[in-house]
Design goal:
42% helix; single chain; alpha/beta; Chemotaxis Receptor Methyltransferase Cher, domain 1; 20% strand; three-stranded antiparallel β-sheet; 2 domains; Rossmann fold; 10 strands
C-alpha cells in the first residue's frame, strides 16, 4: 500500500510546520517506510489508519513520533574524516594560540543525531588539547529519540564498527552487555539538548567551533539563511563553522567567507561584520 497524495500532503505539511524540513514529491515511499513502525507502535493497523486518526484527533505525542521518524539520522564516528583532520591540523593549533589565557574550547554539534559526532569531537579534544585545557561540547537535535539515545551513550557493535578505530573503542568505551558505553570521563564534558535550529534559539554562550553538517540540505533557501544567521550569532569572531560537503553559505549568507582547511573547507564570519547581521546584497 502506498501513500495517497492527500496523506503525503498532510505529512509533508506537518513536517514543514514543525521542523522546517521540505519533503519533495517522490518521497512517498520513504515516508511510508519510516511511518510503518510508528503506526504499529501506537496500535494502528497500517499507516493509512494512523494518519487518518492523527488528522481527526491531533495528538502532539504522535506528531512528535512522525517528526522523529522522518528526521534523517544517518551518522558515524569521525564522519567524512576530513573535517576532523582539519580540526586537528589547523583549527585547534590556531585556537590554542588565541585562547592561551582562557585555555578552554566550546564546540556546538548541531543536529548531533545519536551522539557519534559529539563524542568524536570529545575524543579529538581529549587527544589534541594541551594539558591543563578544558572543553565543553553541546550536542543538539530536533528528535527527542535521538537526544535520549545520545544521553544514554550506548552503541551496538555494528554502530561502533562504523568509523571508530579499535584503539579508541578500548580507551573511551566500556562494555555494557552486548553494547558499548562511552566512559564517564568522556561523557562529563558533553551535554545534549532538544533544539529546533529553525526556531528562535535559547540564550547560549558563544562557541569557538560549530559543526552544522548535513543539515542545510533539508531546508529551503530562506530557512537555510535563518539557520546560518542564528549560527553566526553564536560563533566567536574568530570561530569556525563546518558544513557538510554538499552544503555552502555562498549565495545564501554572504557575511560568511569560505576558507581552506586542510583538504576541506570551513566558514568564518567576515571581518567587521557584526554577529547576526542581515545578509549582504
Amino acid at each position: 500500500m502506498s501513500l495517497t497524495q492527500a496523506e503525503f500532503n498532510f505529512v509533508s505539511t506537518l513536517v514543514r510546520r514543525e521542523a522546517s524540513i521540505v519533503l519533495a514529491p517522490g518521497k512517498e515511499y520513504l515516508v511510508e517506510a519510516r511511518l510503518i513502525p510508528v503506526a504499529r507502535a501506537v496500535g494502528a493497523a497500517n499507516v493509512t489508519e494512523f494518519l487518518a486518526e492523527l488528522q481527526r484527533r491531533p495528538n502532539p505525542q504522535h506528531q512528535r513520533k512522525v517528526i522523529d521518524a522522518l528526521t534523517t539520522n544517518e551518522t558515524s564516528w569521525f564522519r567524512d574524516r576530513e573535517p576532523f583532520a582539519a580540526l586537528t591540523d589547523q583549527v585547534l593549533p590556531e585556537l590554542i594560540k588565541s585562547r592561551a589565557t582562557a585555555r578552554k574550547i566550546r564546540i556546538w554539534s548541531a543536529a548531533s543525531s545519536s551522539g557519534q559526532e559529539a563524542y568524536s569531537l570529545a575524543i579529538t579534544m581529549q587527544e589534541k588539547l594541551p594539558a591543563g585545557w578544558t572543553y565543553e561540547i553541546m550536542g543538539t537535535d530536533i528528535s527527542t529519540e535521538m537526544v535520549k539515545r545520545a544521553e544514554t551513550a550506548e552503541y551496538s557493535q555494528v554502530e561502533v564498527n562504523r568509523g571508530l578505530p579499535a584503539s579508541q573503542l578500548v580507551q573511551y568505551f566500556e562494555r555494557a552487555g552486548a553494547h558499548w558505553r562511552v566512559t564517564p570521563a568522556l561523557r562529563r564534558n558533553v551535554s545534549f539538548k532538544l533544539m529546533n535550529l529553525t526556531a528562535p534559539l535559547p540564550p547560549m554562550q558563544p562557541f569557538d567551533i560549530i559543526f552544522l553538517r548535513n543539515v542545510l540540505i533539508y531546508f529551503d533557501v530562506a530557512t537555510k539563511r535563518t539557520v546560518l544567521q542564528n549560527a553566526a550569532k553564536l560563533l566567536r569572531p574568530d570561530g569556525w563553522l563546518f558544513l557538510g560537503a554538499a552544503e555552502t553559505t555562498i549565495g545564501i549568507d554572504d557575511n560568511y567567507e569560505r576558507v581552506a582547511a586542510g583538504r576541506t573547507s570551513a566558514y568564518r564570519v567576515r571581518s567587521g561584520v557584526p554577529a547576526g547581521a542581515p545578509r549582504r546584497g
